[in-house]
Amino acid sequence: MRKSFTYCLTLFTIAGFISCQGKSQPALTTASNGKSLLWEVSGNGLQQPSYIFGTMHLLCAQDAQLSQALKTVIRTVHEIYFEIDLDDLGELFNGATLGIMHNDTTLSDLVSSDAYNRIRLFFEEHDMAMQFRMMQNLQPMLLSSLVYQALLPCTQTEGMEMAIMQWAHEQQKEIKGLETAAFQVSILQEIPYEKQAADLVNTIDSIAGGSKKIEEMIRLYNAQDLDALLDFTLKTDGGESPEIQDKMIFQRNLNWATLFPTITKDKSLLIAVGAGHLGGQSGLLALLKKAGYTLRPIENVPTETL
Q: What is the percent of the chain where pLDDT is above 70?
């Protein structure tokens, strides 16, 4: 498993607004061990705190639970920002359309007939034959994301973004995006189709190892250890070029940190992005701290474990 791990952590899963001004800020407990998926950002001219939350785009349903602290944050902030606007169906459709390979290329053009049959058999055995047929002309990286779904150790799955959106809709919060689906797909387009296809074949041919890696990734996510999660992601993506890793992770972190002062002006936000973007010296949290903001880890115990 290579790039799919980064993308499972970071990107592309291919409401009216009610102001909360005047409400008191939530009383949130600081995480005693300093590890959390939920962080408060204050100071440096902010009139009220905003919050950063690390998501995973697809999890077992029992792991996609919102903590009371996160629910309180959603209820209190003005708006929710994801990587892209998941409430905009036109935006999602545009991303899917842009994911189509050029020159009528299909997966069968990129791999041997034997490899193609192994991929097809995998999807059939995991009850995803229809998805496989429908995605023949999409970039192979998007098929890799379905392999990740099949390897999860459960039958009921859900992304953290969907869980957050459901609660946000109940609270009548507006959903926005830090970037466009077109931008995300443009990153994929820099990776040759042949390489994407080769990585897909490698993923299919190393299922046992892939399952163990997914289990470890989920363990680190549930432990809310952002630095360890980033380190694991980069090592798992060891076959990817530093240039692509930089564009997929670090340049996007910088883009978001640069955007932060503008979108938080006179507003309190929850920014929910892939957890792989938060940790490390070039992570979003470190960049905001370097910019002069105060970062505080919030105790984030999922509701089901309370």
A: 88
What confidence tens digit (pLDDT) does each residue in 94-119 have? 777 888 999 999 999 999 999 999 99
Residue 86 neighbours by CB distance under 10 Å: 22
The three-point CA angle 214-220-225 to 5° equals 150
Cα distance between residue 128 and residue 120, in whole Å? 9
Alpha-carbon distance 74 to 269, whole Å?
Answer: 8
Residue with tokens 């970039």: 139
- Please name the residues in contact with 94: beta carbons below 8 A apart, sequence gap of 6 or more: 180, 181, 182
For residue 180, give both structure tokens.
């466009």
Would you say residue 58 has pLDDT above 90?
no
> Residue 232 CA to chain centroid, in angstroms?
15
Spatial contact of 120 and 204, defined as CB atoms under 8 Å apart: no
| Mean pLDDT value of segment 216-232 | 93
Element (H, E) at 61: none
